[in-house]
Structure formats: C-alpha cells, structure tokens
Amino acid sequence: MDYRISEPVVGPRHEDILPASVTTAVKVVIVGGFGVGKTTLVGSVSEIRPLTTEEIMTQAGAGVDDIAGVERKNETTVAMDFGRITLSDELVLYVFGTPGQQRFWFLWNGLFEGALGAVVLIDTRRLEDSFDVMGRLEERGVPFIVAINAFPDAPSYPASELREALDIPDGVPVIDCDARERLSSRDGLLTLMRYLHALTTTNPERR
C-alpha cells in the first residue's frame, strides 16, 4: 500500500515563526471609535500577516452605527484585529485591535484580559467618540496613551488644546500618528512602552 503524501505539508511561514531569542511577550490593545484606523494601524505595524475580522457593513447597522464623518467606510471589524511586532531580540508585542462600534464593545472584556496598556486612536473630526473609550479604560485601570491619527481633511489642534478638550490626565502622552505608516505606528507603540515603564518605575505596584 502506498502511503506517500500527495501534497506537501505546509507549516508557518518563516517570518511568522517567533524568534528563539524572545523571552518576554507583552499584550497591548489598540482602541478607539468607529473608523479611526485601528485595523489600519495593526496591519501597518505587524511583521506577520495580520488577522482581521472585517465584514461588509449591511443594513443591520443602519440606524444603529453612527457613521457620520466616515460615510465611505463599507467594512467594519466585528471581533478583533491581531498582529505582532518584535521590538528587540528579547521583547515582542502582541497587538490587538478592538471593534469600534458600541454594539460590539462586549468583546472588549476578553480582549483586555492580560493587556498591559492601550493606544487610544483619535480622529479630530469626531472627538466626541473618544470620551466613552477613555472612560472605559479608566474604569478598568488600563494605562493608555493618546495618538492623533492623521486624516487629510481632519482639523489640527495643539496637543494642549486636545488634552483640555478631552480631559486627558496630566502625564498621559499625546502624540501624532499616521496609522498607514509602519514607522509612525511603531513609534506610537514605543511611546506606550516607555510610558508603561515610567509608570512601573514610579509605582512599583504596577509591576
């Protein structure tokens, strides 16, 4: 009897294999309102093929989802996005993007399990969408930074005005970010990691 395998066994791609030198893995979360660029950021920064759960928007969301300002958007994340980026020989970040529509926010409970911190993406055309997001993070005690995503037609404000308008706590970094650009997205994650490190230095209980 011939037991030869007719098709080759396909394993993970070389670039998907976690380097053997990695000793620490950290989970972080990208949050924000609907259409602020979370899926774009995860996709641009991930060194592996990102996992996305985008689906075509249907009439089921009509009258439920607020698409003001993002009327051209025809897909939405319904569960999560996932990517990975290696920051050093020893440290790797697992990056999870949350769904933005409030009807999917119940999924946040699982996504935040074990997360050390979050990046809050903001669209200055729809600042009001950020209040509930940051409120939920503060309720959970999840440290976060704020990243102002670059949209061509979005108004620009000084960081001090945005901090006041959004009531962002003193000490929380507020940075500019272009979610389409890998280096910009990476710098946002590095800012979060530096902030988390500073928090553990000043407050050892967070370690």
Which structural class fits the helix and strand makeup? alpha/beta
Q: What can be said about the biggest beta sheet?
A: 6 strands, mixed
Q: Largest beta sheet: what is the strand line-up?
A: 4-5-1-6-7-8
**Count of helical regions:** 5
What is the terminal-to-terminal distance? 60 Å
What's the overall average pLDDT, rounded? 81
Question: How would you describe this structure to a colleague?
Answer:
- The structure is a single chain.
- The chain is α/β, with parallel strands linked by helices and 207 residues long.
- The chain is 25% helix and 21% strand.
- The protein has 5 helices and 8 strands; from the N terminus they run βαββββαβαβαβα.
- The model has no long low-confidence stretch (mean pLDDT 81).
List keywords for this structure.
207 residues, alpha/beta, 6-stranded mixed β-sheet, two-stranded antiparallel sheet, 5 helices, 21% strand, hydrolase, ATP/GTP-binding protein, GTP-binding
Topology of helices and strands:
Elements: E1 24-32, H1 38-45, E2 54-56, E3 75-77, E4 81-86, E5 91-97, H2 108-111, E6 117-122, H3 129-140, E7 144-149, H4 159-165, E8 174-177, H5 182-202
Parallel strand pairs: 1-5, 1-6, 6-7, 7-8
Antiparallel strand pairs: 2-3, 4-5
Sum this structure up briefly.
By secondary structure, the protein is α/β, with parallel strands linked by helices. The protein contains 5 helices and 8 strands, in the order E-H-E-E-E-E-H-E-H-E-H-E-H. The mean pLDDT is about 80.
